[in-house]
Amino acid sequence: MGIDYRVVRSVFILAWVVCLVSAAPAETGVNSWYEVMKVNHEFLDHKGDTHQEIADLVAKARYQRDLEETGKYSGIRFIIHWQAPSSEIPKFAVKLEARGFDAGSGRETIQTFNKDYPKTPGFSGWTTLDIKGDSLKHLGKLMAWKVTLLENGQPVASRKSFTWDDSLVTSRKTTSTP
Questions:
Q1: N or C: which end of the chain has fewer CB within 10 A?
Q2: Is it the case that residue 26 has pLDDT exceeding 60?
Q3: What structural domains does the chain harbor?
Q4: How far apart, in whole angstroms, are the C-alpha atoms of residue 11 and residue 9?
């Protein structure tokens, strides 16, 4: 009694179709087209640079690690890649919530930063937000982050670090706008 490859092929095709259907947007509304595609953050040195050698990614990673471990950084730059259904959406904003820990006071901190656009600058774009100066001082050590896309002040998409926990967000927010 051998393997019936027609049955195996049928099961494989059925599983593939189920995967395709489950990957489709749950709703066909406008919001299903918004997405925070990628969020990176880098430490800024005292010159405002993120690296010393442009072409060497290993050297950049070492430099970033050294900045974080020594605490000798002057800021944190968030680079956010997003997409929207149209380039004509009014009152579009990218919101960054950063949760930190202030060792001096022993308290958790939360900082909120918004980048407001009169209309979406494109169907897909990059937003850069820097945490520097007093905002960095009040944040302390970065522990988690959450990025939300807003249309007319309403959230339409978000992405968060795996360390983000919405239940920890309290009314102790400090708000800044770069």
A1: N
A2: no
A3: 27-175 (2.60.40)
A4: 5
Euclidean distance between CA atoms 42 and 76, whole angstroms:
6
- E-strand spans in the chain? 35-44, 75-83, 90-102, 107-119, 124-132, 141-151, 154-160, 173-175
For residue 155, which of 100, 96, 99 has the smallest C-alpha distance? 96
Nearest alpha-carbon partner for 142 in 80, 68, 72: 68
Q: Six-digit token pair at 88?
A: 């004509």
Q: Beta strand 173-175 with 107-119: parallel, antiparallel or unpaired?
A: parallel
3-state secondary structure of 152: coil
pLDDT digits (tens, 9 = 90+) for 108-128: 999 999 999 887 777 888 999
54 DSSP 8-state letter: S
Q: In terms of Cα–Cα distance, which of 135, 129, 114, 126 is closest to 41?
A: 129
Cα–Cα distance, 81 to 100 (Å, whole number): 22
Q: Report the alpha-carbon distance of residue 157 to residue 95 in Å, rounded.
A: 10
Annotate 119-132 with DSSP letters as a single string: E-SSSEEEEEEEEE
pLDDT for residue 15: 47
Please give the single-letter amino acid code of residue 35: E
Q: For all residues of the chain together, what is the average pLDDT? A: 78
At 169 the pLDDT is 64
Number of residues that this document lists for the chain = 178
